[in-house]
């Protein structure tokens, strides 16, 4: 019974009541059928109380989330805390972003300064990240696992690009893009149309090209897998966002992962 102290008060009271009835039924001079009737009556009363408590819980939940929203929140908790590979996708190969480095990125929107036109160096992006006191953060956030809405790389405008140097030449098989769930956060800043390019070396012509579209609505998961066409091993991968879902000020990339096999 020590563990019962952690139960909600109403459930703890129900358990105590049922225990009391069991003791009374066992000590009274009653036939077995009468004891069963007492327990059946008690069980029926407990069932009604549980139904009332469950109804109250649903009512409270409905004030904040509808049923589909609740399902999305539950999925998000399970995905974030128990499995780093989302249930929505099943990529093959190794996660190459774990050892990749950012070598070029578009300008990051900062809380302290408005977005400016023109390219900005990675060093400046990192400085903005270190001096910012609240989200959004720098491009390195796009390669990190996060549990919170707002923990994204917010690039200025509706177009942006992020270039990665892979640790070793690799055959890239797919990418995974992630935003926060459609039901629990705004989606206008999510990327929409994008291009993936792969290079043997940073200054050469691309040997891998893929045009994709990230769908952000109730019919699609917020984590989406995009298989890439077969190509020779690459050392550099670029993700270029062409449009987002309507936010003219910035585009949020919550997570990018690149899957394949190192050579």
What can you see in these coordinates?
- The protein is of the alpha+beta class.
- The protein has helices at 9-27, 32-62, 67-82, 122-131; strands at 94-95, 101-105, 153-156, 160-178, 193-199, 208-213, 223-227, 234-241, 250-253, 255-262.
- A hairpin with an 8-residue loop joins strand 5 (193-199) and strand 6 (208-213).
- Residues 1-6, 78-87 and 116-136 have low confidence and may be disordered.
Mind sketching the topology for me?
Blueprint: H1 9-27, H2 32-62, H3 67-82, E1 94-95, E2 101-105, H4 122-131, E3 153-156, E4 160-178, E5 193-199, E6 208-213, E7 223-227, E8 234-241, E9 250-253, E10 255-262
Antiparallel strand pairs: 1-10, 2-4, 3-9, 4-7, 4-8, 4-10, 5-6, 5-8
On the 0 to 100 scale, the average pLDDT is 75
List SSEs in N-to-C order. Answer: HHHEEHEEEEEEEE
Approximate helicity band: 25-40%
Oligomer: single chain
Main beta sheet: strand number and arrangement? 8 strands, antiparallel
> Between the first and last Cα atoms, what is the distance in angstroms?
58 Å
Number of strands: 10
Number of helices: 4
What is the SS-derived class?
alpha+beta
Radius of gyration: 27 Å
pLDDT under 50 segments (min length 5)?
1-6, 78-87, 116-136
Our estimate of the beta-strand percent is: 25-35%
Which descriptor suits the 3D outline?
elongated
Keywords summarizing the entry:
263 residues; alpha+beta; two-stranded antiparallel sheet; disordered N terminus
Concise synopsis of the structure shown:
The protein contains four helices and ten strands. It has helices at 9-27, 32-62, 67-82, 122-131; strands at residues 94-95, 101-105, 153-156, 160-178, 193-199, 208-213, 223-227, 234-241, 250-253, 255-262.
